Amino acid sequence: MAYPYLQDLVSAATGLHLPLPVPTFGLCVLGAVLISEVFAKAEVRRLHSTGELGLAVRRVRKDGQLTQVQVPPQEVVFDFVLTVVLAGIVGARVFSIAETPHEFLADPWGMIFSRQGLNFLGGLLFGIGAGIVFVKSRRLSLPVACDAFAPSLMLAYALGRVGCQLAGDGDWGIAADMALKPHWLPTVLWAQTYDHNILGETLPPPGVYPTPLYEILMSLACFGILWALRKHPFRHGWLFAVYLILTGLERLAIEPIRVNTRTSLLGLQVTQAQVLSFLLVLCGIAGVVLLTRRRSTGLQGPLGRDPEPIQPPRVSSRE
Length: 319
What we know:
The chain is mainly α. The protein is built from ten helices and four strands. 53% of the residues lie in helices and 7% in strands. The N and C termini lie far apart (87 Å).
């Protein structure tokens, strides 16, 4: 069963039929922003207190003019999370439209505001790009900021997938093979028909694999790993490299049972997400190899960079 609007969820839980036409996917995105912002702010505050992350720059209007002021970096965390999430949604829509140009030309407005089709590649690239621009514009150290936000990015993805599951937006799996279902596993965790989904599609019984549920569980596990490793002693950027590995592996694990467009590459039938995920894992491994070196000091300069080493005073040979 799917619950595309809040009124559907309330009706199923309480039996009350209230006029609440609020999309559950939108509510979950909002929840993802607010909850992940709490964890991101806590980590940014910790890194600032240890001197690893310096002050951020914020534009404020003073006496009718825009001016820049320095603020603790945790004060710009909400802006960062919101920017990345919104950019990710826009990117996912843009890349989805690019995959079906003929459908877009036939009904451009319908495609733009469609409730179906959020492309993983577009969402990730736009989100990371927007995050880099944001961090640079606030004059924060990019490697330190990447480490600080990595766990929360994974958490936001997990919570966003809750919206996909509730709304039934098409991000489900292929037809479920009931012969492979473990006897101890509840059927609802193996196959669902997503009745009353937001797309209005009818899925024949026994249904499809509820891949959003699997992604929620895997992403929450990855978030736990990143959160446990956040106080690592290695060079800044190491944790973000681990994030790239985990997010790539998570997607590679789900793609074989997920509905997606496949193309031929080197004689293999692969999805766009599989190619990107493989590249993410390679980049993450390279980052881990290069950055698995202990930092020389925990102190950082005003922009989060390692300060210049203090040179010993010269002693004259005449003394």
